[in-house]
Amino acid sequence: MLGAIIGDIVGSRFEFGPTPEKDFELFTAECSYTDDTICTVAIADAILNERSYKEALLDWCHRYPEPMGGYGNMFYDWLHETNPQPKNSFGNGAAMRVSPVGWLFSDWEEVIAEAKKSAEISHNHEEGIKGAQCIAEVIYWLRHMRFTKSDVERKIEKFYGELPPMRNIRKIGAQGHFDGTCQETVPMALRCFMDANSFEDTIRLAVLCDGDTDTKACIAGAVAEAYYEIPERMEEKAFSYLPDDMLEVLSQFYDRIQLDINK
Q1: What is the sign of the dihedral through the CA atoms of 250, 233, 190 and 182?
Q2: If phi over 0 gives left and psi between -120 and 50 gives alpha, with beta otherwise, what is residue 161?
Q3: pLDDT one-digit tens code per residue, 68-84
Q4: Which residues are paired to 91 by β-bridges?
């Protein structure tokens, strides 16, 4: 979960800002958490405190109505309806908020079912659901199956489709294309994880691909956390950007993870 939040914060200043350059500074005064972090915290809160995904998302997004970069147009409309209903969306929001599902459920069938539930309240298009299930399942594989990256990539190709080569992802970024769908962002983020050699390198690769930098790095970071140790300096820096209520959910989240490990 913190991996997703770090990716979001690092990528935030580039989403609508300057093109990232090699060796860019990870954390600056221009960085902030965005809707990606808010929604990820909401999903964790829902699971940890037995709330519905819909209730938790509405609560957290209304607590923070104007995050850096705002909310996507369709999701913004959903948030402000009297009785929000699914929008048949396949936007990448379904995948960027799902990482707590991959961590807080230990049964494979539950992971798949809960990923679907977390997506379909707003993103009920099959591609939106598929994107969320893919990321939650990859986190599950890495945590419980001790898969290598090659194992994971073969599984992804079998169940979700082939990942694009990095050269194609960089071409999209160079053309200024904004990758806002699950069909694009999820494979891109996974390729960045596959090609990286550390947690930090995963985040850097995702941001350097440009486009929807915060969400791509959020998804890539979520997966990378299940494989790599997060450097302590990055953890501490990310904490400094977050308000107390988000930190409380993070603390509760990692207490639960540690409890599960010790069982």
Answers
A1: positive
A2: left
A3: 999 999 999 999 999 99
A4: 181
Q: What is the DSSP string of 101-170?
A: HHHH--SHHHHHHHHHHHHHTT--SHHHHHHHHHHHHHHHIIIII---HHHHHHHHHHHT-PPPPHHHHH
* Count of other CB atoms within 10 angstroms of residue 117: 17
pLDDT per residue as tens digits for the range 50-106:
999 999 999 999 999 999 999 999 999 999 999 999 999 999 999 999 999 999 998
Residue type, 74: M
Distance CA 134, CA 153 (A): 11
pTM exceeds cut of 0.70:
yes
| Alpha helices in the chain, H assignment, sequence order | 2-15, 35-48, 53-63, 73-79, 93-96, 99-104, 108-120, 126-140, 149-159, 166-174, 182-195, 199-208, 213-225, 232-239, 244-262
